[in-house]
Amino acid sequence: MVGLQPGDLISQLPDQPVGGVFLAGHTTRGADELSTGIATLQRSVTRSAGVPAQVAVDQEGGYVQSLAGPDFPAIPTAVAQGEESSSDLADGTSDWAKRLVDAGITLDLAPVADVVPAGTAEENPPIGAQDRQYGSSPSAVAEAVVTVIRSMLGVKLGTTVKHFPGLGRVRANTDTSADAVDAQTSASDPALQPFRAAIAAHTTAVMISSATYPQLDPDHIAAFSAAIVTDLLRQKLHFDGLVISDDLGGAVAVSSFSPGQRAVDFVRAGGDMVLTVQVADIAPMTAALASLAARDKTFRARVDNAALHVLASKQSVGLLSCG
């Protein structure tokens, strides 16, 4: 999945076929203009890749709302959404999610399932300091996350619960630091409750964080950890949907790895769709995956499995039909 700036999407596409496009940044374009551009994009992607792309945005609310044009009213912060009644949250989510679908968006990179402990928000740059959390207890976050997921899925908008296994306790942002560490989260941690609830609610996708979790895997960031992606998420929590990386392009957390190595390490760990905001990364990432798959039967089977998860996610939002 490659990040493109809203506008002339076709001119930004890499030469290599892509499985998804992420509308990066913020735009005040209206729904008709976006819909026209996305329809043109889908025709181009379908010609090159054989199937349409997942078209994603970051539309959480508050500080994180990619689409802010006249057809996309301001969405409250997650903190404010978490204080709403379940019925009000469901109605509000259904309304703005339907607006995304009407504009051609198929996947929202939301909701946030991270639990920020009470009184620590300002010490948590990626989530708490931006009011991106639905509450300060696992149960409150889980309840809101399930409501949001069900509302989005109800209008055929795919969902991406994030940032597994949680960014609510870190003291650094993986976008700007390689030192984001959560020394507390374990496989039995109560803070995993919102992710369990999201899986039970049939979230389309789970996004993996790029922080480090020593109790789960002291040697790898989550995105490159089979212990976290395969053993914990796939096997223990029984998630069989789409696993997406957090940004593996511009994030400082992965800057010590080459683009090709980032893609290989993520897929090898159990991931399905690599997300990068750097269009130039697509060529080396694709080449590295293809090269290793050609030499390694086990890795080739893992790539095939990842492709099936991507296709299943597209089918779930109406991009593909059976038969």
From TrEMBL:
Keywords: Glycosidase, Hydrolase. SUPFAM superfamilies: (Trans)glycosidases. It comes from the Bacteria. Residues 13-311 form the Glycoside hydrolase family 3 N-terminal domain. InterPro entries: GH, Glyco_hydro_3_AS, Glyco_hydro_3_N, Glyco_hydro_3_N_sf, NagZ_Beta-hexosaminidase. One of its GO terms (molecular function) is hydrolase activity, hydrolyzing O-glycosyl compounds. One of its GO terms (biological process) is carbohydrate metabolic process. Belongs to the glycosyl hydrolase 3 family. PANTHER family: BETA-HEXOSAMINIDASE-RELATED (PTHR30480), GLYCOSIDE HYDROLASE FAMILY 3 DOMAIN PROTEIN (PTHR30480:SF16). This is Beta-N-acetylhexosaminidase.
